[in-house]
Amino acid sequence: MQLIYNVGIVFHRVLSFVARFCLYGLLSLFCISSNAATVEDFSRHIQYYDIKISPDGKHLAALMNSDGGKSLVFLDSETYKVTYALTSDRKSQPASYYWVNNERVVIQVEQLRGSLEKPINMGELYAINYDGKAGKMIFGYRSEGGMVLSGDAGFLIDTLKDDDKHVLIRKQILSRKSDVLPKVVRLNVYSGKEKRLRTAPIPYSQFLIDNNGHPRFVSGIDSNHKTRLFYSKGKGDKWQLFGDEFDGEFTPISFTQDNQSIYAFKSEGGGVKGLYKYNLKTKEEISLYKSKMVDPTYVIKSDINSVYGLRLDEDYPSYVYLDKNEKEAKLHAALYNAFKGDNVVITSKTKDGKQVIVNVNSDRNPGSFYLFNTVTMQAKHLFNSASWIKPKEMSPVEPFRVTTSDGLILNGFLTIPKTKTKTLPTIILPHGGPHARDYWQYSPQVQMLAAAGYAVVQINFRGSTGYGKSFLEAGYKNWGTKIQDDILLATKYVIQQGIADKNRICIFGTSFGGYSALQSAIRTPELFKCAIGYAGVYDLPMLYKEGDITSLKWGDAFLDKTLGINIEQQRAQSPVYNIAQLKAPVLIIHGEDDKRAPLEHAEKLRKALDKYNHSYEWLVKDKEGHGFYDEVNVLDANKKILSFLNKYIGIHSTM
Description:
This protein is an alpha+beta fold.
């Protein structure tokens, strides 16, 4: 089944979309407006997701938003004329993609299926040339060799730089309940023919490929939620357990050019991870870099697959170069300095390295794409991810740190609206997860709140990822206690600094952040004047019965480890059982088809609020999952949030 049915219709849809957004030749993207950003602006999907250049530098591919769906547009890199446009139909749309040779890209397809608004990745792969020729579904149930009931899914893992006709994919059955053993398959990008190379020895695993295209490492999670790592010496060699159970403390990242060593993230004694070079024959390891506070965010690799640097996110993002004189390290450093400390990501480059595509983003910039010539050292602006967002109008995000009573250093971010007064109505915005973290970056939600006049506080509480195993485990069994104490500490900090008006503070979060909004408001009922739970979990014991966590093989073990097995303690840390202590009015926002935090959580919270005749507002949307996706629904939610906040802590509030 083809992804595209009528090229004429495709061009009409894409070009009419382009015209609406002031696009001239797909090059300069500036829609002139004197109006400040509105809630509608913060509720839209970004316009451009990604752009990549072909290996020979003759063509560009841009993934863009078109009429609410995604399109992949191909352009001549000299004239910027469109050569072809691949857009969505009623069932599918292009998503992530990769150039595999000078003419052809392989695309991971998202499906528009069932009742959900948000597209889902079912492991289908589509390939097409830049001129629209030879379009073919090369993997998935709609491919020539696919079977409707097989359930096989494919995910690209390596483009095989010296092979123009094949890629490597991870092939597996889409199932959460069975012991799924993924396979590495070499896939022909023209015919879709497969050749199986290796099968993983452990379910739900990921592969690391060497520079000869051979799977050499595989890591997975066992039924006890332990990370297990296996190693193969070479092609055809058996998998062997690599060391003991690492529990996430040793992670191979990349092979060196000669395949004799690997770069790996490693930690000891519960501390943060450092970057190491490990010789597979001699077992010798060399420490390359280690922060005192955070794990590396990711490594930066050269054309020859050698790691030359890494990114750190202690406060502001920064980059560490292992050899500052290395050619690509010098290029990256020059770009980083030229863009005055903003995030710099090289999305693709030509085979000769003379042209690169650079994505620059920051706390106030959702992203800008540039074509950079490494010979002339000149950058040409292509377009912005969201042309309607003007960075100069956005509010700066400033990092801060606080120290807990038990000695943990917490990293946080404070966004002050441009119309600052002496003290500000303030939103405490805990992140989801809880095993995730906040970064210094653009957030439409944060900027929307700041544009409405609110200070916004984000804090990486204990249990957040990126700060070492001990910091992560400090949050285990403390979801409703010590984690909430950390959130309260950040709240007190902004009050003490004279930033927050102590009489106008609300707490708002999504997923675990929604749980925290209710739990913190229950623990400190006099502090928060309102609480907003968005896609939240409110009954911890219910996590064992509802939702998709326990459908995973290691789901119960994960919950036992992070929540503890004492049901009474779980109930004591669950908002639904402690509404009697709550004083803040509540806004509940939820998707009817949420699988991670099923609607039953919101309904049980509403029932508890009704029991105590407690004030609340309610917004539930059907066809939405874990967080709203449809722009109309996102806008409705954002308007509801702003109206609710204004009612209780805004300039027109009566409290």
